[in-house]
Design brief:
Largest sheet: 6 strands, antiparallel
Structural class: alpha/beta
Number of helices: 12
Order of helices and strands: EHEEHEHEHHHEEEHEEEHHEHEEHEHE
Distance between the termini: 53 Å
Strand order of the largest sheet: 8-7-6-11-10-9
Shape: globular
Number of strands: 16
Oligomer: single chain
């Protein structure tokens, strides 16, 4: 059967010969104005003039997580692809677009989404994800590896929920370290009494099917609690729930998820029960210096752009000095968790100094960085921080290449000055180096 491809967005922004190339590549094309089709399309291709088109976020939100969403921009904007990926696109290209390359990408996305139950595919995904975790261990903090694992498993298995829950013997609550479920934000506590299958998985050391919340208590083959083993203990449990439109999770998929979760757990370096999303300032600065140097050398070598952001978080909570300090630390932890969930896997974030976070955005120019910061601030504003009160967010942005930057240390002076300008503003409070 020919893969079904739905065309959305601006027809005038389509590259010349697009429809002909897609048809020759074997796709069945469905125009956006056509009535809803059954079965649904296998992929969605969105064409727009540039990343500033107000329809971009709406089209991506309307499409949901399925099917794969690929965006093509008619403008030659180096930041356009990053903007689309930040908004949730699976892939994005900016002009000039090589049509055979686009067709190959579309086929690859459709093939990956349609083939999770095939054993050869599972073997390939297993190796890919193992490589991801091995690479992440050299460049990410341990808890970031868990977040990366959750995101990748969710994408590979088309999951509606994927949660990495830390458990401690004798404690009635588990801590959600990495999560992809809107009702369980990262870093919260989970009442294990509400999930007896978790206790059963810990006791039996085997995956346990969980009760379907919509199935009158019956256990579902698409909802599992998987114990993460370490020696003779179970320091964590992985919760997986498959989307209703997909077949149940296979034994091979459960085995692969368990083995990858175990690799991620090992990266927590024997402190899984006490993992904190906070960074010691010295470690954060050292990691930031290393990552900034890497991005600086890569950008200079390949003529790329990247941005450094300082995000200031000011807490104005009533109370005595100790209460204010405790409130501020609580807010910092929650902001750190949310930042690591919202940013791309390629981005880097660390505590910088005091109440500031430093964020490195690879392959992102000034406009893309400003959009990313504005989006981060909007989502951070929705954090449930009562009774801590609402923090005030300010930001400074500097992008490379810049005429005043000849080495990485130059970026710090510029971005700190930009942050001060942002704090002095009364509008969006985002200072940017011209």
């Amino acid at each position: 059967m020919r893969p079904r491809l739905r065309l959305e967005g601006d027809a005038a922004a389509r590259p010349p010969g697009l429809e002909r190339a897609l048809t020759r590549a074997g796709f069945q094309l469905i125009e956006a104005l056509a009535p809803p089709a059954s079965p649904p399309p296998d992929a969605l291709l969105i064409t727009l003039s540039d990343s500033h088109d107000h329809r971009l976020s709406g089209l991506l939100d309307a499409a949901g997580a399925e099917p794969p969403r690929i965006v093509v921009f008619a403008a030659q904007d180096p930041d356009a692809a990053a903007a689309a990926l930040n908004l949730g696109a699976d892939d994005a290209l900016a002009a000039p677009v090589h049509l055979p390359d686009l067709c190959a990408r579309l086929h690859a996305w459709i093939r990956d989404r349609q083939s999770p139950r095939r054993t050869p595919y599972e073997s390939e995904v297993r190796e890919t994800l193992r490589d991801l975790v091995a690479e992440a261990r050299t460049m990410l903090q341990p808890e970031e590896i868990v977040v990366a694992l959750v995101r990748r498993l969710s994408r590979a298995f088309a999951l509606a929920q994927c949660s990495f829950v830390i458990t401690t013997p004798g404690e009635a609550e588990g801590r959600v370290l990495g999560d992809l479920a809107p009702h369980l934000p990262g870093g919260v506590r989970m009442d294990l009494a509400q999930y007896p299958e978790i206790a059963e998985a810990i006791r039996t050391r085997r995956p346990v099917a969980m009760a379907d919340p919509h199935g009158n208590g019956r256990r579902s083959p698409s909802l599992f609690a998987i114990p993460v083993l370490r020696d003779d203990t179970v320091p964590a449990v992985l919760l997986l729930r498959r989307r209703e439109s997909h077949p149940p999770l296979s034994p091979a998929q459960l085995e692969m998820a368990a083995s990858l979760a175990q690799v991620a757990e090992q990266a927590l370096d024997d402190t899984v029960a006490q993992v904190s999303v906070d960074r010691q300032p010295a470690a954060g600065i050292a990691g930031l210096d290393r990552r900034l140097l890497e991005e600086f050398e890569r950008a200079r070598r390949y003529s790329l752009s990247f941005s450094l952001v300082l995000l200031g978080v000011e807490v104005t909570s009533p109370g005595n000095g100790r209460a204010v300090a405790d409130t501020g630390e609580q807010v910092q932890r929650e902001v750190g968790v949310r930042l690591r969930r919202e940013l791309r896997l390629s981005d880097f974030v660390a505590r910088y100094a005091g109440d500031d976070f430093a964020i490195v955005l690879p392959e992102t120019g000034p406009e893309g960085a400003h959009r990313s910061v504005a989006r981060m601030r909007e989502r951070l504003a929705a954090l449930p921080l009562e009774p801590a009160g609402r923090p005030i967010f300010s930001a400074g942005i500097v992008s490379y290449p810049h005429s005043a930057v000849t080495e990485p240390d130059d970026l710090f002076a510029l971005v700190e000055a930009a942050l001060m300008r942002g704090k002095a503003q009364s509008g969006d409070r985002i200072g940017q180096v011209d």
